[in-house]
Amino acid sequence: MDPAVVATAEVPEAEARARPARTGRAHRAAAVAALPVKASEDAWTPEELAEVRVELEAEVARLGGELLAATTAFSSLVANGGEGAGDDQVDHGAATLGREQEMTIANNARDLLEQTQRALVRMTSGAYGTCEACAGPVGKARLQAFPRVTQCVACKSRGERR
After folding, report:
1. Domain that holds residue 23
2. How many domains does the chain have?
3. Among residues 134, 145, 151, 162, which is most buried (max CB within 10 A)?
4. 130 touches 138 (CB < 8 A)
């Protein structure tokens, strides 16, 4: 293991906060070394973290477009919802179903977009990879599979059982 990684991992939290802020490449390298991993996992490399960041940024762009399309489709359905002479209950029901579907798609895209943006913020702040419930490591493999995740498997399982 790289001596810089070991040195960074062994620094107490209060002491790490007292250090002056780093900039540029040194800051990114320190942030990578400081990302928590499980004992059975290797530390994050700058390339691995960059790969996850690129994936998250691409997801933000994709979800932004999806949200715009869903919002536009919903607005169109709402604007055209009252048109049509002689509409019966079936027509109104179909129109309502269409609006609800577009609203659900827009809400799901908005939620995923917020989660993805939050993951990018956590990555920048150095909180990426830390479980929000127990403050332990989420797990590198878990983050590589699902980069938006904010809880370790144990905490997520506990939350789903409730």
Report:
1. 1-34
2. 2
3. 151
4. yes
